[in-house]
Amino acid sequence: MNFFKNLFAKKAPAPETGTHATAPAPSYVQEYSKEPYNFETITLDELLKRDASLWDLYTNAADGFLIKNVLSEAEVDTIMSNFDKVLNDDPAHTAVGFTYPAVFAEFSNRIKQENDDKKAEAIQAYFKKTTAFNEGFHKEFGVDLKTRFEHLFKAISGNRNIEVAEGMDGLGKYPFATVRLLTPDKGLMSVHCGNYFGKTFENFYTDLTKKVAVENQMSFFVMLQEPEAGGELSLFNFRWKPGQTKVNPSEDNEIIQPDGSKMYVEEDKNIIKDKIVPKKGDMILFQGGNIWHRVETVRGAIPRITFGGFIGISIDKKTFYYWS
User: Fold this and answer.
1) In degrees, to the nearest 5, what angle opens at C-alpha 116 toward C-alphas 114 and 120?
2) What is the pTM of this model?
3) What are the tens digits of pLDDT across the range 95-124?
């Protein structure tokens, strides 16, 4: 319909020439950071003394933290000793590895592909599984990460509530975090930011935004298994601007600017990457909503395995919700 409206619409008169001519609109200019991001390597005890760190991340007063030894080696080993439960419980396979349970993007894709008469049943089944995952994680994997995460987030929340995001139509909860495995030689997470996802997976976010101000959502994950090489978190020195997009979520070089021009993260000489390399048991917590970033291709024989998700503040600014 928009095509026909445009075809038959009355054309606006051409601008007058001479001294009263309208100047052409300036082209969009990408802003680049010339300084490294404010990304600190910090101990857990040091972070816990900063009781408003989540608010600082949300408002861009801080960019991110590499938090050392959030989990001990023994705790990570305990979780990984139960990893066969992940492999045997229908992980959501992708071209670069798998997630478990299915992350929101994969869940959104699955729902789109269902027949209309099957969608309600599929949604109900998904949230039944994720709610059971949340409630039973400590028994299945031997470490109560849900409680651990909530204590940490509460301590740095500025005295706000911490809750797992409620599922669609009040059906259970989203997973509090998910396993992400990236396979060697092809496993990566293409350049993205959380604010871009808000425009790409609108069906998912339409439901979530009833309670959560998802713009400037934060990202967090704990390293469970380091790859032999690669797999670094790369932060690009430019932030999200409304109107930026990509041709599809898997595109890993071209970013389309609000004026339709294109930038290429591999060729643009203005672009630099800060590479963050967490070790086993470390947590990364950062402003993944507006910092364009990616996970570099995993190399070697060992998959990269992390466990994490996202954090957003409520509309009334009284609660931080987290999900994956």
Assistant:
1) 80
2) 0.88
3) 999 999 988 777 777 777 878 778 888 888
